[in-house]
């Protein structure tokens, strides 16, 4: 059981904000993710160019195609939040799966950097990975409130990593 989730994930250095901050400061132009089409504009990421209102001057800015932090993280097989959910009964599996998917979908609609990376099921144990630690935290609270008899414990990685790992156990 202990080694169940030993995967090839590298938990170190999930933030790839550096490149993005450069665009925010010096460089001219808009950063557009070549994978998901998110656009970095006015210090945050948005869903696509059509969703942001550009003024006359901004429309002429060059587009710089990069990988956004979320896509970069997924490509690097990294994550910022991981939930280990134990003792998921068959009876609750559908409900839990819908809750996780729905919660993360709504988070993504609000912020394109909030993403569900994967749900991996090994028998009654699930591993859920997401791109933001705050998303993992909120998702854990949501699960705790939705189901009875649940035990939640949280573990934060040491600096400079921002990774949170939450263990949830159905009792
Ligand atoms: Zn992207």
Spatial strand arrangement across the major sheet: 6-7-5-9-8
Unreliable stretches (pLDDT < 50, length at least 5) are: 1-26
Content-based structural category:
alpha+beta
Treating each run of at least 4 consecutive H or I residues as one helix, how many helices?
5
Please tell me what the overall shape is.
Answer: elongated
> Could you say how many structural domains there are in total?
2
Question: What's the main sheet like?
Answer: 5 strands, mixed
Please trace the helix and strand order, writing H or E for each element: HEEEHEHEHEEHEE
Which band does the percent of strand residues land in? 25-35%
Cofactors, ions and other ligands in the entry? zinc ion
Mean pLDDT: 85
How large, in whole angstroms, is the Cα Rg?
18 Å
Helix content: 25-40%
């Amino acid at each position: 059981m202990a080694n169940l989730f030993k995967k090839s994930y590298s938990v170190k250095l999930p933030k790839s904000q550096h490149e993005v901050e450069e665009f925010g400061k010096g460089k001219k132009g808009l950063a557009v993710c070549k994978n998901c089409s998110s656009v970095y504009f006015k210090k945050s990421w948005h869903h696509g160019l059509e969703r942001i209102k550009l003024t006359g001057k901004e429309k002429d800015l060059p587009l710089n195609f990069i990988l956004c932090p979320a896509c970069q993280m997924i490509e690097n097989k990294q994550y910022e939040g991981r939930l280990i959910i134990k003792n998921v009964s068959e009876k609750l599996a559908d409900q839990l799966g819908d809750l996780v998917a729905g919660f993360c979908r709504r988070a993504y609609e609000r912020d394109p950097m909030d993403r569900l990376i994967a749900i991996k099921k090994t028998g009654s144990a699930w591993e859920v990975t997401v791109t933001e630690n705050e998303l993992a935290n909120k998702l854990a609270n949501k699960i705790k409130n939705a189901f009875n008899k649940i035990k939640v414990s949280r573990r934060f990685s040491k600096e400079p990593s921002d990774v949170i790992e939450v263990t949830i156990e159905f009792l």
